[in-house]
Design a protein that fits this description.
This protein is α/β, with parallel strands linked by helices. Helix content is 29%, strand content 18%. Helix 1 (11-30) packs across helix 2. It is globular, with a radius of gyration of 17 Å. The structure holds 2-amino-2-deoxy-6-O-phosphono-alpha-D-glucopyranose. 2-amino-2-deoxy-6-O-phosphono-alpha-D-glucopyranose (GLP) is lined by residues 39-43, 66-67, 128-130, 136-137, 159, 163.
Length: 239
């Protein structure tokens, strides 16, 4: 795992530069559109804004996302599809057909992953990390299976509390659709972004602790191509 530690002031810019470089390199190497899976959450907002200002050839990119709340359509302001539209797609010149959403209202999970595979699979996956070590919405559990695939999941109380500010009705509907860890592991290049002191403990446990289903992100220690971009606060417990 490659770990890059940077100041929070440069966090969005440097992250966007690194991802942009990777997109451009892969477009040149593979000579086909690059498939990118995006994450949501506060960590991503400034990064997505910087990415939108990059000189990327967007017509040679296809986008997917990691997860979506159950029952929310892409037009619902609390949905992740809406978040990504606001924070990236509305700001860039990209053909609509290149954007693929999980429609939380009428999901077709199989078609969604089949489309990703038919286009060549995930070239780049962006990840954040939940305070409890979740990746996408793969929540910790003693019987959690690292070979999980896209499915419906029930969200944990700590996730409900963390996300309630953006989705007030989450308490009545604590369900989501998420790519599984096995889907995420198929990503050829993974970038994990984390910032802030609140993430320092889970970053330490995930990167230096025992690999355990109690901390889903710990499995990233075994991925062959992951770059973690951390601000000094999130990295503060790493030696
Ligand atoms: C949500 C998403 C995750 C994301 C996490 C972190 O739970 N499902 O993919 O990693 O939020 O969010 P934040 O960046 O707001 O801490």
């Amino acid at each position: 795992m490659k770990i890059i530690k940077i100041s929070v002031n440069n966090f969005a810019q440097i992250s966007a530069n690194l991802v942009t470089e990777k997109i451009t390199l892969l477009q040149r190497e593979l000579k086909r559109p690059i498939n990118i899976i995006l994450a949501t959450g506060k960590t991503m907002i400034n990064f997505l804004d910087q990415l939108s200002q990059s000189s990327t050839n967007w017509s040679l990119t296809n986008f997917f996302h990691l997860d979506e709340y159950k029952s929310l359509s892409p037009q619902n302001p609390s949905s992740f599809a809406y978040f990504l539209t606001q924070n990236l797609f509305s700001k860039i010149n990209i053909p609509k057909k290149n954007i693929n959403f999980i429609n939380g209202e009428s999901p077709d999970l199989l078609s969604y992953v089949n489309k990703l595979h038919s286009l060549g699979g995930a070239d780049i996956i962006m990840l954040g990390i939940g305070l409890n070590g979740h990746l996408a919405f793969n929540e910790p559990s003693s019987d959690y299976n690292f070979s999980s695939r896209i499915s419906e999941v029930k969200l944990h109380q700590s996730t409900i509390e963390a996300n309630q500010i953006d989705y007030p009705e989450i308490t009545n509907n604590p369900y989501a659709y998420t790519l599984g860890i096995a889907d995420i592991f198929e990503g050829k290049n993974i970038f994990l972004l984390a910032k802030g002191l609140s993430k320092s403990k889970i970053i330490f446990q995930s990167f230096r602790g025992k690999i355990s289903p109690e901390i889903p992100a710990s499995i990233l220690q075994t991925h062959p191509n992951i770059t973690a971009i951390l601000d000094f606060d999130a990295a503060s417990l790493l030696k």
